[in-house]
């Protein structure tokens, strides 16, 4: 018993290491340049992104079921293997078809880790009788992940200055270590009984009962989808917004690195903030700030207006911790990863619907007008969704 206890405790620091290694995506600041250097047109690049999104959406729920039925540890291991294969394909790639293979591997890696990571750490804490510390642990996870991305962005830019293939090459040894770390995890035993022979049909019946018959989970999933897609869409508006504000492109990298630091700190201390505010105030605040940030960006434009985006980064870090904690508390371990795959699935659907609408608003009107309209729409949607939730609470 003591040995298992120690193995479970070791899961936590090993998981932090796993997230740090996974976050070292050195390619981030040079990926478009790399594609173009290898002869891809912008249309081909966007086709690759579309294929990636389709794979992610299609695989979300099946991979969530895999994690619940076969094991979260195995899902994290498969993510490590696919991520390593993706980087090897990028290093060897010289044309569209090589990069198509790399994109498929990378999308599969993302699908297998989606839901399994959060479920793995929550089940570990639950087995230790420490599930109440989930917000703190997951906050630390997002903190380490965000700091890793910040460092990787700076290092990747420097490596890409020498050779655009170097960032991908540099990731391979770190992802090989990722495989070793995932092999060392100890699979926590869920307190709820679960048959590994259970079919995906039975799993989806359990998800239906948990999600569609549980109004609280259903509203949290919708709530999360609106917040996540709003932040995701805003990300693609940052660069044109900075350009409009007069910020020199040479500072974009530094600004984006700062964004990730803000997100990291927000996630790390989210458990303290949430305990002070409480669940109801936290949920209301997230929607108000999201709406406010869009409106401020649409109406305040000067060279330092990028600081307004700090609000989005706070929301991103805070919401990723507290909303997942709320959902975990309403979900059984036997379908935990599947429910979180449903969460990611809904978020991707909302993003796919919201992104073209925002693009149309920017094309037909102006960027400031589009931002303002989005702020108003999100504010109204938040009010409609949150009020019934608060009444039930």
Automatic annotation (TrEMBL):
<keyword id="KW-0472">Membrane</keyword>
<feature type="transmembrane region" description="Helical">
    <location>
        <begin position="142"/>
        <end position="162"/>
    </location>
</feature>
<keyword id="KW-1133">Transmembrane helix</keyword>
<feature type="transmembrane region" description="Helical">
    <location>
        <begin position="370"/>
        <end position="390"/>
    </location>
</feature>
<dbReference type="GO" id="GO:0022857">
    <property type="term" value="F:transmembrane transporter activity"/>
</dbReference>
<dbReference type="Pfam" id="PF07690">
    <property type="entry name" value="MFS_1"/>
</dbReference>
<feature type="domain" description="Major facilitator superfamily (MFS) profile">
    <location>
        <begin position="1"/>
        <end position="393"/>
    </location>
</feature>
<feature type="transmembrane region" description="Helical">
    <location>
        <begin position="220"/>
        <end position="238"/>
    </location>
</feature>
<feature type="transmembrane region" description="Helical">
    <location>
        <begin position="168"/>
        <end position="186"/>
    </location>
</feature>
<feature type="transmembrane region" description="Helical">
    <location>
        <begin position="75"/>
        <end position="92"/>
    </location>
</feature>
<feature type="transmembrane region" description="Helical">
    <location>
        <begin position="244"/>
        <end position="262"/>
    </location>
</feature>
<feature type="transmembrane region" description="Helical">
    <location>
        <begin position="41"/>
        <end position="63"/>
    </location>
</feature>
<feature type="transmembrane region" description="Helical">
    <location>
        <begin position="283"/>
        <end position="315"/>
    </location>
</feature>
<dbReference type="InterPro" id="IPR011701">
    <property type="entry name" value="MFS"/>
</dbReference>
<feature type="transmembrane region" description="Helical">
    <location>
        <begin position="15"/>
        <end position="35"/>
    </location>
</feature>
<dbReference type="InterPro" id="IPR053160">
    <property type="entry name" value="MFS_DHA3_Transporter"/>
</dbReference>
<feature type="transmembrane region" description="Helical">
    <location>
        <begin position="98"/>
        <end position="122"/>
    </location>
</feature>
<keyword id="KW-0812">Transmembrane</keyword>
<dbReference type="InterPro" id="IPR020846">
    <property type="entry name" value="MFS_dom"/>
</dbReference>
<dbReference type="InterPro" id="IPR036259">
    <property type="entry name" value="MFS_trans_sf"/>
</dbReference>
<protein>
    <submittedName>
        <fullName>Nitrate/nitrite transporter</fullName>
    </submittedName>
</protein>
């Amino acid at each position: 018993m003591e040995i298992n206890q120690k193995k479970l405790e070791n899961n936590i620091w090993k998981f932090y290491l796993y997230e740090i290694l996974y976050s070292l995506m050195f390619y981030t600041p040079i990926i478009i340049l790399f594609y173009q250097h290898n002869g891809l047109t912008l249309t081909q690049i966007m086709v690759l992104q579309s294929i990636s999104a389709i794979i992610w959406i299609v695989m979300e729920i099946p991979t969530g079921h895999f994690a619940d039925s076969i094991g979260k540890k195995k899902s994290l291991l498969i993510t490590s293997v696919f991520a390593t294969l993706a980087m090897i394909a990028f290093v060897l790639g010289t044309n569209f078809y090589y990069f198509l293979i790399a994109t498929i591997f990378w999308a599969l890696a993302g699908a297998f880790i989606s839901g399994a990571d959060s479920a793995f750490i929550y089940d570990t804490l639950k087995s230790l009788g420490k599930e109440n510390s989930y917000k703190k642990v997951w906050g630390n996870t997002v903190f380490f992940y965000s700091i890793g991305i910040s460092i990787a962005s700076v290092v990747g830019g420097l490596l890409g200055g020498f050779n655009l293939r170097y960032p991908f090459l540099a990731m391979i040894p770190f992802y090989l270590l990722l495989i070793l770390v995932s092999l060392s995890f100890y699979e926590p035993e869920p307190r709820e009984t679960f048959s590994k022979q259970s079919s995906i049909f039975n799993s989806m019946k359990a998800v239906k009962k948990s999600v569609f018959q549980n109004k609280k989970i259903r509203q949290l999933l919708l709530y999360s989808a609106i917040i996540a897609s709003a932040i995701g869409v805003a990300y693609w508006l940052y660069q044109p917004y900075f350009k409009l504000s007069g910020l020199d492109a040479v500072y974009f990298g530094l600004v984006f690195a700062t964004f990730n630091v803000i997100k990291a700190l927000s996630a790390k201390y989210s458990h303290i903030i949430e305990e002070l505010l409480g669940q109801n105030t936290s949920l209301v605040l997230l929607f108000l700030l999201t709406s406010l940030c869009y409106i401020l960006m649409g109406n305040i434009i000067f060279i330092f207006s990028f600081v307004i985006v700090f609000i989005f980064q706070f929301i991103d870090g805070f919401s990723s911790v507290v909303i997942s904690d709320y959902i975990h508390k309403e979900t059984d371990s036997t379908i935990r990863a599947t429910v979180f795959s449903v969460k990611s699935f809904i978020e991707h659907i909302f993003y796919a619907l919201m992104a073209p609408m925002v693009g149309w608003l920017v094309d037909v009107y102006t960027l400031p007008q589009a931002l303002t309209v989005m702020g108003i729409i999100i504010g109204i949607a938040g009010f409609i969704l949150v009020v019934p939730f608060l009444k039930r609470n």
